[in-house]
Write a structure and sequence with these properties.
- The structure is a homodimer.
- Chain A is of the alpha/beta class.
- The first copy, chain A, has 2 domains: about 10-175, Peroxisomal Thiolase, Chain A, domain 1 (3-Layer(aba) Sandwich), CATH 3.40.47.40; about 185-335, Stage V sporulation protein AD (Peroxisomal Thiolase, Chain A, domain 1, 3-Layer(aba) Sandwich).
- The first copy, chain A, has 10 helices and 14 strands.
- The first copy, chain A, has helices spanning about 30, 55-70, 95-100, 115-130, 145-150, 205-225, 240-250, 265, 280-300, 315-320, and strands at about 10-15, 20-25, 40-45, 80-85, 105-110, 135-140, 165, 170-175, 185-190, 230-235, 260-265, 280, 305-310, 325-335.
- In chain A, the strands form 3 sheets. The first copy, chain A, has a 6-stranded mixed sheet with strand order 1-9-14-13-10-11, sandwiched between helices. A 6-stranded mixed sheet of chain A has the order 3-2-8-6-4-5, sandwiched between helices.
- In chain A, helix 2 crosses helix 3.
- The longest helix of chain A is centred in the middle third of the chain and has 20 residues, at about 205-225.
- The first copy, chain A, starts with 10 loop residues before the first strand and ends with a strand.
- Chains A and B meet through helix 3, strand 5, helix 4 and helix 10 of A and helix 3, strand 5, helix 4 and helix 10 of B.
Chain lengths: ~325, ~325
């Protein structure tokens, strides 16, 4: 039995791989009409979700997804040891207000659009380390709350460049457990913040591709695996152009991943939906992982995948003060069982 | 040897308690002139710290504190397995830009003003769980960046009520290690988000005292210890009125903590400095813990303390949309050795 972490490596592995015993996903109408629409548990008819603000709608989605994951695992909130959650809103209010309503001991995370995988990685470490039996992980994002916070007032209807992505409206949640039925998390690779000097908050693909390539290459080197060990290598929200750039960067590092490199942001919308570069946001990798990918594993269509969520680490303030945009990517290996 | 966590408890304990092998603190001029001024490693003469913005100054403080902690431990950044960091700024840009410059695998946290203790708790779990040998934990806050983000433009000079706190300008960092010399982290109690319906973002003491009392009572019940087991029980930034309220709430729960309940926010300024209710911000519990408290342990003046950092989980947006303010408190036991 190997030690869980060898000195100097970025990848940890789990001696008793934690089990994803339940997942839940809620998405907006646009996501429900996309190619993966059938794999989500609930589709909103109205992006306000009956609330007075988009922010309240986002929080409600996250809370419902988390409750659904808890119920599907046959649990009550008081049976869950920790809630790990985050979102894109300032001071992660969607997650914090959900934590208030659920009453589970709460660890707030901020990994930008990589937060779901930061949570899965940390949750698996808490369980395999012996500190928890059940961990709830969840994230949310909402097109309208993100657009007005990071870019322009939503009502202004600014024309978006073709390399811009579309923030996914949705929430995803999963219960990780020490024992149970479901796919298992076998490895996690925690990313470094990588900055190639890109500064355009519309062009997230170019910002995040170097971080994705860095984490994937590090994971493959640490585990001494080749890309074809995985049925799929799935990045979070690089979009069309970012995915191509990541493939090129990986080739420069000696890894040919072409045919098996997918991106949740590309998968979630069809070109006819005019999402430009693709989907983004915490919920993008969240709902595609907890919806489509887990279903693919359970159905036996794939045996294992390397999920690599990507996040851009900037704020409106850092952008206005002339900073470039660092990015991060966290990877998790999920295997069917 | 007990299991690290018993089912249903909020407290985890460490089989091989991780060691705080180094700490570093940087503070602003006001904090340097306070009663604990001599316990900090560096005092800024200028709150811009030679930078063009307060935000850049805050990020520089955090980076310097983290580098100082790494050097004092006799390490290089590449010897550190994970960096756990956060701050109060939208999308925690101080921590994320520091992570970019240090290049250490990075897990971004948001626990409001409780972030230092969220980091110490998680860092200790990652080490005791076998996933890391060295973890860097750090936080920052800055009066001017917090004031303009959460309340009013700093230049406006709004009159502050007497129950308002003063955000500490500073940064704190610590290296946790599997082995080495220094105080050890023996237990951690992760808090729940508690909301008593308070909605005034100036009155943080009233917001956070219920969360502090909840976590302290839970910790004492989980460990079956009485308050006098600890030389000090030190909350993060409740301030004068919040500390009194926490004492009252704990009495209602059956715990008399009076003489040993201190608050970092009360300790860091003298009444002559006119801080109103006291200090607050991520750096408040951060610098008092990594400065004064650790020095007290090392000097043998105290044997152990229960640190209980407190955080208010709100944003400008949630306040404007009429939400009340939930709060959280995370506790860590540190013992001299």
């Amino acid at each position: 039995m190997p030690a869980p972490k060898k000195n100097g490596l970025q990848t940890v592995w789990f001696q008793s791989p934690p089990v994803i015993i339940s997942t839940a996903t809620i998405v907006g109408g646009k996501e429900g009409q996309g190619p993966l629409g059938q794999t989500f548990d609930k589709v909103l008819e109205d992006n306000y979700y009956g609330e007075k603000s988009w922010e309240k709608a986002e929080q409600r989605m996250l809370e419902e997804a988390m409750q659904m994951a808890i119920e599907r695992a046959g649990l009550q909130p008081q049976n869950v040891d920790f809630m790990l959650g985050g979102d894109l809103l300032n001071q992660i209010i969607s997650a914090s207000f959900t934590a208030r309503n659920l009453g589970i001991p709460y660890l707030g995370l901020y990994g930008a659009c990589a937060t779901m995988y930061e949570g899965l990685a940390l949750g698996a470490m808490l369980i395999d380390g012996g500190f928890a039996d059940k961990v709830l992980v969840g994230v949310s994002s909402h097109f309208a709350t993100a657009e007005r916070q990071f870019r322009y007032p939503t009502e202004q209807g600014v024309q978006r460049p073709l390399y811009a992505s579309w923030t996914v409206t949705g929430a995803a949640a999963a219960i990780l457990a020490r024992e149970g039925n479901g796919p298992v998390v076998t490895h996690a690779t925690i990313g470094r913040a990588i900055d190639f000097g890109q500064g355009d908050p519309q062009n997230m693909g170019a910002v995040m591709a170097p971080a994705a390539a860095d984490t994937i290459a590090r994971h493959l080197a640490d585990t001494q695996r080749s890309p074809d060990y995985y049925d799929l290598i799935v990045t979070g929200d690089l979009g069309t152009y970012g995915r191509e750039l990541a493939e090129t960067l990986l080739r420069q590092k000696g890894y040919e991943v072409g045919g098996r490199l997918y991106d949740c942001g590309v998968m979630i919308y069809s070109p006819e939906q005019d999402p430009h570069a693709g989907g983004s946001g915490c919920a993008c990798s969240g709902v595609v992982t907890c919806g489509y990918l887990i279903k693919q594993l359970k159905a036996g269509c794939i045996k294992r995948f390397l999920g690599v969520a990507t996040g851009a680490l900037f704020s409106q303030c850092s952008f206005q003060q002339g900073e470039t945009i660092p990015a991060i990517a966290h990877a998790v290996v999920v295997e069917g069982r």
